[in-house]
Please model this.
Amino acid sequence: MSLLVIRTSSMGDVIMTLPVLRSFAAAYPGEELVFVTRKPFDQFVTGIPGVKVFLFDHHGRHRGFRGILRLWNDLRSMYHITAVADLHDVIRSKVVRLLFRMGGCHVARIDKERIRRRKLVRGRLTGSLTHTVERYRTVFKQAGYPLKLISGPWLLPSDEGRAVAAARTGGMKRPFLGVAPLAKHPLKVWPLEKMEAMLRMLMSRKKCTIFLFGSPDESAVMDDIAARVPGAISMAGKISLGGEIALIADLDLMVAMDSSNMHLAAMTGVETLSIWGGTHPRAGFSAWGMPPENQIQIPDTELTCRPCTIYGKGTCRRGDLACLEWLTSEAVLQKILNKLN
Model:
């Protein structure tokens, strides 16, 4: 008997499954959980007791509608699936869960609160949406597995990753500050000139080692920042994902946009400061386990247009990106110094 859990993307959403996956392993040690995701996200969940990773081949065997049918057939032939927790709720997962339901499996799916999301970005919702981790936990309960969420850290570095990180940090001066200055969409990105100015002021006030994190595609930007900021070292494209997880877990503080690096740091238990622009923590995607005072943002009482987006897509309605431009280098610096001290 196995619980099938589906979440194939995106990176931040897969990372946020970790509290419920680890809580499941703690609460149901005799049960098997089959987690469907894709590379390289399998590295986040590999090693959790009782969790078996099934890699979804979205470019090959499981591509297209026939691929979805093959995905279902592969899963039912390899495992004795008795319940399905759909944490994604996209066409692919909808078809798979429907086929399992027709076979007699108990099925539960995530509620994405789409109506409340629309109200939030239109300024008609004063409260907060349910955090994604809590919505995942609700799906597990509906699938027949109620959970009490355990405390973190929820993402543990591998031995190989620790060795890679140790080779990078040997002899370097603490404290270690991680900075992830980019995000997928511009409405999430604090202006780089402000970030650079803040980091230069930081180095004049407190000597530390700054590690810059980003995807391999962002390596050129990170290298440019590192060249202009004394004490900054770019890790983008220069370290394996396992090594990056271990290095982040060894940080004294992480500063990140609303991005996957924010979630990754929070899941390792590292103190995480998050910078918010067009998106908002009230949308349910804040850094899990971090206190509200770690969120750096212009209050939506001052900028009533916030949030203007759930995921960061689109353009600024005002045309001036005030939610990001109004955040000063001095204000962010003070937050960092308060934490490092």
Notes: The chain is about 40% helix and 15% strand. Residues 178 and 291 are 18 Å apart (CA to CA). The mean pLDDT is 97.
